[in-house]
Amino acid sequence: MSSQAYAGEALGHFLAASRWADIPPALRHEAVRSLLNHLGCALGVARDPAVTTALEVMAGFSGAPVATVIGQGRKLDAMSAAFVNCIAGNLLDYDDTHLRTVIHPAAPVAPPLLALAEQRGHSGTEVLHAFLLGMEVECRIGNAVSPGHYDRGWHITSTCGVFGAAAGCAKLLGLTATQAWHALGIAASQSAGLVENLPSAAKNVGMGNAARHGLLAALLAEAGYEATPAAIEGPLGWARAMGDMPQVAEITSGLGERWEIARTTYKPYSAGIVFHAVIDACLQLRAELDVPPEAIAAVTVAGDALLLARGDRAVRTERDARVSIHHNAALGLLRGRAGVADFGMPAVLDPALVALRARVTAALDASLPRGAARVTVRLADGRERVATVLQARGSEARPMSDAELAAKFRDNAALGGFADRADAALDALWALETAPEIGGLMALLT
Amino acid sequence: MSSQAYAGEALGHFLAASRWADIPPALRHEAVRSLLNHLGCALGVARDPAVTTALEVMAGFSGAPVATVIGQGRKLDAMSAAFVNCIAGNLLDYDDTHLRTVIHPAAPVAPPLLALAEQRGHSGTEVLHAFLLGMEVECRIGNAVSPGHYDRGWHITSTCGVFGAAAGCAKLLGLTATQAWHALGIAASQSAGLVENLPSAAKNVGMGNAARHGLLAALLAEAGYEATPAAIEGPLGWARAMGDMPQVAEITSGLGERWEIARTTYKPYSAGIVFHAVIDACLQLRAELDVPPEAIAAVTVAGDALLLARGDRAVRTERDARVSIHHNAALGLLRGRAGVADFGMPAVLDPALVALRARVTAALDASLPRGAARVTVRLADGRERVATVLQARGSEARPMSDAELAAKFRDNAALGGFADRADAALDALWALETAPEIGGLMALLT
């Protein structure tokens, strides 16, 4: 890639030149797993007002209905469908995570590709290929500005998602290397989204825009719109405007050889990712102890400074619950699970959970690595039991199996009211690489 | 305004509480002048491929055609029409300028308001009122982050334009103070656009998005979407992410008493604003000397460091011409004008202009204030004549008259091929404050 002088130029060449057959089989399978995980998340929240409100507003500004809105029984134009589906896929942050950047890669990239493919009749392989490349570009651009970018206030999944969506759409549309370069440069002028707004519905707007703007960038580049060569790394360009010490070489280092997207993880629990080891440890103790909750006198959760900073808090809302050490420990011990419903208001107010949360104490143990947790349970009879989890289930070291991802998909589908269609959708997804077009899959997700 | 703790809250209250009758008459008239200037600029470039390409791409993603696309003989939905019309209004930077921030205030704000009003039947006064308030919010937010924001790479008309559009749309839709506050917070998560991309069509995308996203923000807030209270000034919010030393108090200081938008200026010439004094001085010398161009032996243009940094350059493209000391001086002396056509490729290549440009020398005179110029012409017979312009025509000190703005509008209309409708459109614009709806005006601009 060293012959290209600009980051966008190298990425454009990478996109145009990439062939599906050259991508390692494990990674091609990962594209299916990632899409499956994304679509399950979107199905699970189909009835959430944040999603249905976005749908209602966009419906007034949509062209011909050609693209399925997941779980809504209706279609919009490709740009509006991408907007709503991206919001749904990421609404609860229950989707995939690229840990180095904390980007959720799939949500901004998959929706415009599915919408375009449904409209234009692209094959399953074409969609998966574009999806994988889009996410790769997204994470690499994220690497270049992390961690200063997020710390400065940029919601990185939105701000980098638009590049991923543009890259994927450029590939699916068959843009030339130069057009793809322009598409990425146009995406740079559409990159937006703030961390300050994450606790509000404004987060969703940043996300939805990332998806539809990537598509818009690619379509404008196809129609002849151009961007400045160094839109990403120039002195008044994206990386400097949005990052304090950008490492632009990260974008192209080992491009096509080392795959960032191979490091994506999936969440088995609908909690903030730093709480997953806490839940794992509690599940383990629950199985070992097998006692009623009233037998538990005290629970101590030890972790590093990040865990305590994020999670040592009172629980008043669904959002609090998802990032509470106390709630997550209580869920693991009491319910033996931590699905979407376990963070709803009924769970927040559940007297048994409230009582157990009150017996949980958070404690700093700086010797524990990031992402680890040690949980100590003291029983009323004086017995004490300890469980330490260094690598949570779903982490890079302990990835979710295909069967676990399928189970998560079924749970999400049931949550959205689509239990009866879950298995057929799973079958279609596992067979997507051989599907000549994606209409059958989308019909199952309607 | 001191009872509101947040910047967005104060602005939301200001928007909801403002009454047209309370606004000084001179400022109300300024809203008409600003709209007239904006619409003329949009008419002038109606046939530019940058505008027609944007129209073609958006036409595939537009709902019912209810809003006029200026000079195109067709309509789109309000969001798409706002996108295209904003691009047209600002395409050549020939529109209005708020000098303190270098924001072009009208282009992102007017298009969504005209589109909404055309669709929903709002009156001329309602449009003008929302337009004025939107631009005021836009410039005040720009003040808070200037000049560091632009220097960091942010195209301030795009990044602040989305707030102006959101504010204007919030007013026109009759949102409550709280809803308007949310609309501004949602706008913060949509703020984007890079200086690096200004020499390319990607600039247009940032502009068009500012206009349609302001509308989207207001519609989402109307439908119940919320933002974080401190989306603008919070620790991980807009001002800190996008500005190095934001002065948030500038947003609300004297709100409703001191009007930033009263300081908007309009351009009599289609050149970068720092070249206007050069043109003025040359026009003056041209009238005094009344000699053929071959009688001019040498021209020296003196100005401050900014003028020289921006304008002492070779002229190869239309863009070069618009920011060239040599071209602008030659135009003033040779053609006695500096309209849009005087910066096209035929002018760049015109042998008479090429020859005269070669006789122009730029010279630093640090004693001259910003925006001033001194031009010395030496004739072949040895005579020398000097003209110094401290305040260019169109500056705050020498504003363009209504008649001059009308003449500029007619020139622009003729450029776009609409000379026959210019006077009727001008009549409708000057009478807009009494128009019960704006359909008649929009029909003249189709």
From TrEMBL, chains A, B:
Domain MmgE/PrpD C-terminal: 269-430
Coiled-coil residue windows: none
Location of the MmgE/PrpD N-terminal domain: 10-246
InterPro entries: MmgE/PrpD_sf (IPR036148), MmgE/PrpD_sf_1 (IPR042183), MmgE/PrpD_sf_2 (IPR042188), MmgE_PrpD (IPR005656), MmgE_PrpD_C (IPR045337), MmgE_PrpD_N (IPR045336)
Family named by the database record: Belongs to the PrpD family.
Name of the protein: MmgE/PrpD family protein
